[in-house]
């Protein structure tokens, strides 16, 4: 310690980390959470079951969403497809939105999707 007439200065030794470890969730935990989300489970439900924070799960969903193509261009017209409708809200329940997805049962991928308000409740074929 150095003492002068006006100030007292204390010198501390610095502490450094020699090597860094990745402190995150395993790929298996991440994959399980994403499968639960894709199969319709909510963020809070996944959090309760797995113990993973819902904000972490939301970040994972956003990361995977950025990797998805904007549209699916099948080589052939699907023989069997499914149109699914989901109603949800943003912020407050009075701000409802609708999400429609078209899925090919024999191949992976989403054929198309539409997001809209109640006025767009029936998506067009275009």
Would you summarize the structure shown here?
The chain is of the alpha+beta class and 126 residues long. It has three helices and five strands; from the N terminus they run ββαααβββ.
Tell me what the structure shows.
Helices cover 27% and strands 27% of the residues. The chain is an alpha+beta fold. It folds into 2 domains: 44 residues; 56 residues, no CATH class. It is elongated. The chain starts with a strand and ends in a 10-residue tail after the last strand. The relative contact order is 0.09.
The structural domain count equals: 2
- The value of Rg in angstroms is 25 Å
| Beta-strand share of residues | 25-35%
**Largest sheet entry:** 3 strands, antiparallel
Number of separate helices:
3
Average pLDDT, all residues: 76
Number of strands: 5
Shape: elongated
Q: What is the quaternary state of this protein?
A: single chain
Q: Find the structural class using helix and strand composition.
A: alpha+beta
Element-level helix/strand string:
EEHHHEEE
List descriptors.
2 domains; alpha+beta; 3 helices; 126 residues; 5 strands; three-stranded antiparallel beta sheet; two-stranded antiparallel sheet
Strand and helix map with partners:
Blueprint: E1 2-3, E2 8-9, H1 27-38, H2 43-50, H3 54-67, E3 81-90, E4 92-104, E5 110-116
Antiparallel strand pairs: 1-2, 3-4, 4-5
Helix pairs in contact: 2-3
């Amino acid at each position: 310690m150095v003492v002068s007439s006006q100030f007292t200065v204390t010198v501390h030794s610095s502490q450094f980390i020699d090597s860094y470890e990745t402190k995150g969730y395993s790929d298996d935990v991440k994959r399980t959470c994403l499968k639960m989300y894709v199969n319709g489970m909510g963020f809070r439900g996944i959090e309760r079951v797995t113990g993973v924070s819902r904000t972490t799960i939301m970040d994972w969903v956003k990361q995977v969403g950025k990797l998805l193509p904007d549209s699916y261009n099948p080589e052939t017209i699907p023989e069997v497809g499914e149109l699914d409708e989901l109603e949800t809200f943003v912020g407050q329940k009075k701000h409802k939105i609708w999400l429609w997805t078209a899925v090919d049962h024999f191949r992976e991928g989403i054929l198309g999707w539409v997001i809209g308000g109640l006025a767009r409740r029936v998506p067009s074929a275009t």
